[in-house]
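Work Package 3 (structural annotation) set out to generate three-dimensional models for the target panel prioritized at the project kickoff. During this period the team completed the workflow that converts sequence records into discrete structure tokens, so that structures can be stored uniformly alongside our sequence database. As a representative example, we reproduce one entry of 153 residues exactly as it appears in the project archive.
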Amino acid sequence: MPVYPNLFEAAEVDAAVQRLAALTPKTVPAWGSMSVATMLAHVNVAYEMVYDDKHPRPNALMRFVLKRIVKQKVVGPDPYPHNTPTAPVFRIKDTRDFHTERERLVAYLRRVQHDGQRAFEGRESLSFGPLTAAEWNGLFSKHLDHHLRQFGV
């Protein structure tokens, strides 16, 4: 099982930012159909759910299902398979600007690192309820790594 970067550590965030800097608006995916700008917007949704009041909380039944069936796949150590279906809230339907989305993602990564591990210990997830800081890191880091690998960086 892979070990994902700890995004609460400045050096790990710097390494992620370097990987993001290697992307260009013309970078193509090794699998899937998202453009690089769409992928960046898609990855940003996880941070929007933490920091922005943009996305509704799923209803109680959906939260139960997500917590019992989906949570471990999202926060656990196993990598995501290629072309895994995504939740509707993560589907980007409009055209996005590559530079804007990359800047947003870098800002979110720096904010997570600045806020630190203690700010995330026991923090409520809209979908999964309270998560440990390690689970939050798994959610953020594994998702980011999956999509950066998708785009070859």
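Residues 10-150 form one domain.
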